[in-house]
UniProtKB/TrEMBL annotation:
Presence of the UniProt keyword Repeat in the record: yes
Keywords: Repeat, TPR repeat
Coiled coil (residue ranges): none
InterPro entries with a match to the protein in the record: TPR-like_helical_dom_sf, TPR_rpt
Gene3D superfamilies: Tetratricopeptide repeat domain
Superkingdom in the source lineage: Bacteria
Per-repeat ranges for TPR: 574-607
Record's protein name: Uncharacterized protein
Length: 913
């Protein structure tokens, strides 16, 4: 291919560059819009240093040449500041404005300025994190309005925005840190139709990760191999005008006229090149370092290729110590200051640590300029900040620092100087991204000085970060500590594993967290586990809860409860009792739920929290609702709402809790089909959630309001509400997303659009299976069975019902079993199989008696409606069948209403009972 536009320092990769250009130019609607570049090396431990950053730079140069008006945004996740959605969004806006000068993102700028003026974007207010949902919602909505105005200026058949993400492996577990828009999956399109994303990381994409699950068609995969032998030769030829060979090279030059000597010299050089390729395995990071050392005449090519194969990497890297002063020390300093070295920081270090010999006059700017000439030094941020390539940093720390500073004395001195530099900035108002970057630097150097104190400082940063929306920051902190893993004591390492399990849970990866905790059980000392038993059991319970393994969660929580009670920790025991009440409620075991709820309530009535007291009132009311005890449910929930409102007015509770009370009250009215009151309370809940930015609550309320619209027969409004819920939680809250898909299927079914209903219900089933939510899976399967039956796909319908029934019987979902029998009855009734239909209706009523009396009454009413819609002559006989079926189940004495109703029908038709 023509290499015009490729940087002069770049070589090879012609096939890959050609593939990139073809991919970039293909803007067909079904074309992959993400190009994922990763190491071809199968062993994860050997990945890195393959030249991905060089390749990305070449791709960007080609893209700008081929499409001069293309907006190109480059993000390097190696920089802590780049792991921030707002930083990236700002960069997108800046590049789009530069590419299309007639357009300005005014709404975005005004919204950003509004939040900045309130201090929300300052490090002095870390609790007002820029990832706060309300800020994200406002900014993404403003940017969406702006991009709508940009659309008329964009080319239709060309890429409009190229997003380039480097070092993706650092955020691959939590890529949502780079997404501004709510409900968007990484990578974000920012409302533009033709967006291309070039993504480079060490590892191939994980298709089981929630971000990538089911998205294979959106991605073109490119495994990047090491340099070929030809590319290594080309690289050396370009970088070294004259190879600093041994005496043999000089002899060859002196005998240039002698063709035989020239041939021998060429053969020897070719052999050396081949040997160098074998030694480096074609890894660009090592080839580049070899070139740097050869260019500075620290060794000859003959000496280089004489290094033993097994120790080549070591003997090559340690030669960095032989570079001229102070360059050799600067590289070591660069490796130790962790993420970045700037002019101010280096100037400060020179006043604190001896890096130069007496009389050296080279300026800081000259030193940094010299560093930039090395192949393994990269820009670390805006301006003059530099850093080592991450793989080279690992090599320098391992092979150079350990020899120069075996007792880590000098590194500790450097760390003290770096800490004092950042502590000077403590009172300054920093942008959130800059504040996070400085905290990460400080953490690294505090760990260098004292591991235990560093870990305590880590925990003070980590806990609030992972509990808020800053899971990306929490992940960066954790990975910083992991660099010291080999120095940690076993108990410290085990503590780190527990923190990681917590973070995985927050990152919506409970299965991985669970596996980590299981491994910890096998690895950790029994005495340590005994001391940490309560915390470990609690994390296991939380993971099981997230995985919808309710019985497993109950077992762990009950062990936690026993432990808390033995220790006399009444407050923790009360909290665990509340959790157990919730789990038993989810399983439909209401007596057990009430037992634990009331046990927890007793503590809070005496000495506990008034806020928790209100929570428990609401929860108990929720159970009463499920039991059909409507008046008791309303009374407790109204009391809980009153307490919460008072606490909120006093500033002791956020408004989310008030919204939860309104939502529960609305559900009570909804089940009683008092739609006006239900809608009023749902809308009040929505207002509360909007004020505090409770994203899942907002989406769930969209679904609830959609249910109200569905019951009113307002199908278009219902669909719009369910879609709003879907957009808000896609890739974020699977439970609400599944619910949205389920109800969109219900709307389609209500309009007899059965194919559409099947699509939505199958989507709900797929996602429920993925997150192992058995309740939502069984619920969706019942409705899927009905839709498939209407399409004549009876075998699939039967399979769906069998799976749903198995789950419902195993988990005790009595309401669902009753609902399934009613659906089967409806299908049989429509086809004129009346006796079969009535038998299903009777079975449905039987299940409802085991659920609650209110649902039993509703099912009984529906059965009688179907009975009386039959041809009049057949009603008495069928009524008698109902009575017999009810008596055979032993229900006539405890629930005589159905038997009496059928007897009355027969009597009124003057047929003997």
């Amino acid at each position: 291919m023509e290499r015009l536009g490729v940087p002069a320092t770049f070589l090879g990769r012609d096939r890959e560059l050609s593939l990139f250009l073809d991919w970039l130019a293909n803007v067909q609607s079904d074309a992959p819009w993400i190009l994922s570049v990763h190491d071809s090396e199968p062993d994860p431990a050997r990945r890195g240093g393959i030249g991905k950053t060089w390749f990305l730079r070449a791709c960007v140069s080609l893209a700008r040449q081929r499409f001069p008006h293309l907006a190109v945004v480059q993000v390097d996740f190696f920089r802590v500041a780049d792991r921030d959605r707002l930083v990236i969004a700002r960069r997108v806006v800046e590049r789009l404005q530069a590419a299309y000068p007639r357009w300005q993102a005014r709404a975005f700028a005004e919204t950003l300025e509004s939040f900045a003026s309130q201090g929300y974007l300052s490090s002095l207010y870390p609790e007002k994190d820029v990832a706060d949902i309300r800020i994200r919602d406002s900014l993404s909505e403003a940017l969406a309005r702006d991009t709508q105005e940009l659309l008329p200026h964009l080319p239709e058949k060309e890429p409009q925005l190229l997003l380039v993400f480097d070092t993706f492996e650092l955020v691959e577990r939590s890529p949502q840190v780079a997404v501004l828009g709510l409900g968007q999956l990484f990578p974000e399109r920012y409302g533009l139709p033709q967006v291309k994303v070039l993504l480079a990381g060490r590892n191939p994409l994980d298709w089981q990760h929630p971000t990538w699950h089911g998205r294979e068609k959106e991605v073109l995969d490119l495994a990047l191999p090491p340099f070929s032998p030809a590319e290594v030769r080309l690289y050396l030829a370009r970088e070294l005008a004259e190879l600093p060979d041994s005496a043999g090279a000089g002899e060859a030059n002196g005998a240039a006229a002698d063709s035989e000597a020239s041939i021998l010299a060429a053969e020897r050089q070719a052999h050396s090149m081949e040997r160098l390729y074998e030694l480096t395995a074609g890894r660009p990071i090592l080839v580049g370092l070899a070139c740097d050392l050869l260019a500075r005449r620290l060794l000859t090519l003959d000496e280089l290729v004489a290094f033993p194969q097994g120790r080549f990497e070591e003997q090559l890297v340690v030669r960095i110590n032989d570079l001229e002063r102070p360059l050799n020390w600067l590289i070591l300093v660069l490796a130790h200051v962790y993420h970045r070295l700037s002019v101010p920081l280096l100037s400060w270090l020179l006043t604190q640590v001896r890096l130069t010999e007496a009389g050296e006059q080279v300026t800081v700017e000259e030193w940094l300029a010299t560093l930039r000439q090395l192949s393994f030094v990269r820009a670390a941020g805006e301006g003059d900040e530099l850093a080592l390539h991450d793989e080279m940093r690992r090599l320098v720390v391992h092979y150079c620092w350990e020899r120069q500073d075996p007792d880590r004395r000098f590194r500790r001195e450097l760390s003290r100087a770096v800490i004092s530099y950042y502590e000077q900035q403590a009172e300054q108002s920093l942008a959130e991204a800059e504040w996070q970057a400085s905290r990460v630097e400080l953490l690294y150097h505090r760990l260098t000085l004292d591991l235990e104190e560093g870990l305590q400082w880590f925990e003070r940063l980590f806990s609030p970060a992972f509990l808020s929306w800053r899971s990306g920051f929490a992940r960066t902190l954790l990975e910083t500590v992991r660099e010291f893993d080999s120095l940690l004591t076993p108990p410290q390492r085990w503590r780190l594993r527990v923190w990681e399990a917590r973070l995985l849970r927050i990152e919506e990866q409970p299965a991985q967290a669970r596996l980590l905790l299981q491994a910890l059980q096998e690895e950790a000392d029994p005495a340590w586990q005994e001391a940490q038993q309560g915390e470990l059991l609690y994390e296991q319970a939380r993971c099981a809860l997230q995985l919808y393994r309710f019985r497993e969660a109950i077992e762990a929580y009950e062990q936690c409860l026993q432990l808390a009670q033995r220790r006399g920790d009444e407050e923790r025991a009360s909290m665990l009792q509340g959790q157990l009440g919730y789990l038993y409620r989810r399983l439909g075991q209401w007596e057990e739920a009430l037992h634990y709820y009331y046990a927890s309530l007793a503590y809070h009535q005496q000495r506990g929290s008034l806020a928790w007291y209100a929570n428990l009132l609401n929860s108990i009311g929720h159970v009463y609702r499920l039991q059909g005890r409507v008046e008791e449910a309303l009374r407790l929930c109204l009391l809980g709402l009153r307490v919460r409102e008072e606490l909120w007015k006093q500033g002791q509770l956020d408004e989310r809790a008030v919204g939860l009370s309104h939502s529960t009250l609305a559900l009570i009215y909804l089940e009683h089909e008092e739609l006006v009151q239900a809608e009023q309370h749902f809308r009040r809940a929505f207002e509360c959630y909007a004020h505090v930015g409770y994203r899942s609550g907002l989406a769930a309320t969209y679904n609830r309001l959609g249910q109200v619209a569905l019951l009113k027969g307002q199908f278009e409004e219902a669909t719009a509400l369910f879609r709003q819920a879907e957009a808000l939680v896609t890739g974020f809250d699977e439970e609400v997303f599944i619910n949205s898909q389920y109800y969109q299927g219900r709307v389609a079914a209500a309009q007899e659009r059965w194919e559409e209903a099947v699509t939505h219900l199958q989507c709900a089933c797929e996602h429920a299976r993925h997150v192992q939510d058995r309740a939502q899976l069984a619920t969706s399967l019942v409705d899927l069975m009905e839709a498939l039956s209407h399409l004549g796909r009876h075998q699939e319908a039967q399979a769906a019902w069998q799976e749903a029934r198995t789950i419902a019987e195993e988990e005790g979902y009595r309401l669902l079993l009753g609902r399934g029998e009613e659906v089967l009855g409806n299908l049989a009734y429509t086809e004129g199989r009346w006796e079969e239909a009535i038998a299903h209706y009777v079975e449905s009523c039987a299940w409802m008696t085991r659920h609650n009396f209110l649902e039993y009454q509703k099912a009984q009413r529906r059965l009688l409606e179907h009975l009386l819609a039959l041809p009049l002559a057949s009603v008495p006989e069928v009524a008698q069948c109902v009575r017999e079926g009810w008596r055979q189940r032993g229900l006539a004495e405890r629930y005589p209403e159905l038997d009496q109703a059928c007897e009355e029908v027969a009597r009124l038709l003057r047929v003997p009972g």
